[in-house]
Write a structure and sequence with these properties.
84% helix; 267 residues; 0% strand
Length: 267
C-alpha cells in the first residue's frame, strides 16, 4: 500500500491542490511538471533518511520510552516537514501568481466546507462526544502501529486525551486565522501585477512562519503544550504495550523500511 501510494503521489498531490484551486490549463501542465520535479527531489534527498529513521524506530519500539524521547522524534519529523515546505515554496509561488479571483473564491468555499466539518466534529458537540471523536482518531493510529489495544490501554489513552488541554474553540480560531491570512496573502500577490516568483516565495514563506508561530498571543505556547502532552501520551501508551504489540510495531516499521528500499532501488 505504501509503495502504491508513493507511486501515485503525483496524482494525489495534483488532485489535492486541484480540490482547493479548481485548476485550469495551462496551470495543470505547469503544476504536473513541478510535482514531478518535487517528487524526484524527495526521492533522492529524503527517502534515504526515512530508511535510517525507520531502522532507529524499530530499535526504539522494543524498549521503554519517555516523553523526551518521543518529543525528540517529533522534532526530527518537524524538521523534515519544514524541508518539504521550503522545497515546495517556489512551485507554489508560481501557481499562486497564476490564480484568478474565481479560483480564490473556490478556495474560500473549500475552506468553508472544511470548517463546517470541523465544527460538526469538534464544536457543535458535547465534551464527551468530542472526547469520543478524538479517542477514535487516536485509537486508529495506535492500532495501526501496535495492533488491537486492550480495554485498559483504551482507557489510558482516553484519559490522556481528556487531560491534554485540547481546546476546540481555540484551535478553530487559529485555523480560521491561517485561512484568512493565506487568502489575504494570495490576493495581495494578485493585486500587484509586477510581483515576481521570488517575491511570492518570500510572501508565502512569511505566511508559513505565521503558521508555525502564530501571532495570536499565547497560541504558540499553547501549541507547544499540546505537543508535549502528545509526547507524554505516546510514551504512556507505548510503555503499556505487550511484547506481542511491540513485535507488531517492529514488523510494521520493517515493512515500511522494505517498501522505501524498493522505491529507492527503482530506476
Amino acid at each position: 500500500m505504501l509503495r502504491l501510494a508513493y507511486g501515485q503521489a503525483d496524482s494525489l498531490l495534483y488532485w489535492w491542490i486541484d480540490g482547493y484551486a479548481d485548476l485550469q490549463e495551462p496551470q495543470t501542465a505547469q503544476l504536473r511538471r513541478d510535482i514531478d520535479a518535487y517528487l524526484a527531489w524527495h526521492r533522492d534527498s529524503e527517502l534515504p533518511g526515512y530508511v535510517t529513521r525507520l531502522q532507529a524506530w524499530q530499535q526504539m519500539a522494543q524498549s521503554e520510552s519517555t516523553p523526551e524521547m518521543a518529543c525528540q522524534q517529533f522534532d526530527v519529523l518537524r524538521a523534515a516537514y519544514l524541508r518539504l515546505i521550503e522545497r515546495g515554496l517556489e512551485p507554489m509561488a508560481k501557481l499562486a501568481l497564476s490564480l484568478s479571483p474565481q479560483q480564490l473564491q473556490h478556495m474560500q468555499r473549500k475552506y468553508a466546507r472544511n470548517n463546517r466539518e470541523f465544527e460538526q466534529d469538534f464544536i457543535r458537540v458535547s465534551d464527551e462526544e468530542r472526547l469520543d471523536h478524538l479517542t477514535d482518531k487516536a485509537l486508529e493510529r495506535y492500532e495501526t502501529l501496535y495492533g488491537r489495544l486492550n480495554p485498559a490501554q483504551v482507557r489510558l489513552l482516553r484519559e490522556r486525551i481528556r487531560a491534554s488541554g485540547f481546546d476546540a474553540a481555540r484551535i478553530n480560531a487559529e485555523r480560521l486565522r491561517r485561512q484568512g491570512d493565506l487568502l489575504r496573502t494570495l490576493r495581495d500577490l494578485q493585486a500587484d501585477r509586477g510581483t515576481t516568483t521570488a517575491t511570492a516565495v518570500i510572501a508565502l514563506r512569511r505566511w508559513h512562519e505565521r503558521v508555525m508561530q502564530s501571532p495570536i498571543p499565547g497560541f504558540a505556547a499553547y501549541s507547544e503544550s499540546l505537543i508535549r502532552n502528545g509526547c507524554e501520551q505516546f510514551a504512556a501508551v507505548h510503555n503499556s504495550t505487550t511484547p506481542e504489540q511491540r513485535a507488531h510495531a517492529v514488523h510494521l516499521l520493517k515493512a515500511y523500511e522494505s517498501d522505501f528500499r524498493i522505491l529507492l532501488a527503482r530506476d
